Amino acid sequence: MSWARPFCLLLVGGALPLWASSPHITSLLPTGGQRGKEREVEITGERLKGAEEIICYEPGLKFLGFDTTNSTAVKARCEIAPDAGLGEHHLRLRTATGLSELTTFFVGELPVVSETEPNNDKAHAQVVALNTTIEGSIASEDMDCFAVELQKGQQVAAEVEAIRLGRYNFDTRLAVAGPDENSSPMWMMPGSRCRTRLQASLRQTTVGICSACGR
Ligand SMILES: [Ca+2]
Ligand SMILES: [Ca+2]
Asked: Which structural domains are found in the chain, ordered by start?
């Protein structure tokens, strides 16, 4: 029975999961960028040390200048081509020991601005230009308010991507209100897929986003 022990050891060795040495991604931030621009991105996760490449499955993105000083975070520069396809791009991180699971990066056509907290009510609404993508995060029971200037009769469209980014499973509510501090929202849309238009007759309009259940 001298062969029994080596045979058992071989079985145990063969049962080791492949993902034990592959990189694992828990987040990639920011989640996207504008066509024709560059963004500094940070990937966090496990077993990331020695990252060699980010493999992109659609044309238009290049990740360069890797900083792989530790195993839980990788920094890189993302170059977004002027003709990169709009929307979701799929990618994986490659190290010497394996490939990560699939993650995503979103390309848009509008300039990106970051939210500035505190912006939790109309009095502290962040003023942004029309035709802007606002990049923010929703902490527990957070509310984010933004103000845009409109001419009489001008229309505004607002949309929250939220759950469609594929990062967190949370719901949102989107509302638009007039400049009067006490005015009621002109419309309010529950749910994570919010899109509407407002026939504005007011000088300044506030767009508010709040979460129902955390990030
Ligand atoms: Ca926020
Ligand atoms: Ca806020």
From this structure: 19-108 (2.60.40.10), 112-211 (2.60.120.380)
Q: Structure pTM?
A: 0.76
Q: How far is the CA of 195 from the centre of ligand 1 (A)?
A: 19
Q: Identify the H or E element spanning 64.
A: strand 61-67
Question: How far is the centre of ligand 1, averaged over its atoms, from the C-alpha of 68 (Å)?
Answer: 29
pLDDT-derived band at 186, boundaries 50, 70, 90: low
Question: pLDDT of 112-170, one tens digit each?
Answer: 999 999 988 888 889 899 899 999 887 777 888 888 887 777 777 888 887 778 777 77
Q: How far is the CA of 143 from the centre of ligand 2 (A)?
A: 4
Sort strands 155-160 and 187-190 into parallel, antiparallel or unpaired: unpaired
Beta strand pairing call for 126-127 and 143-149: parallel
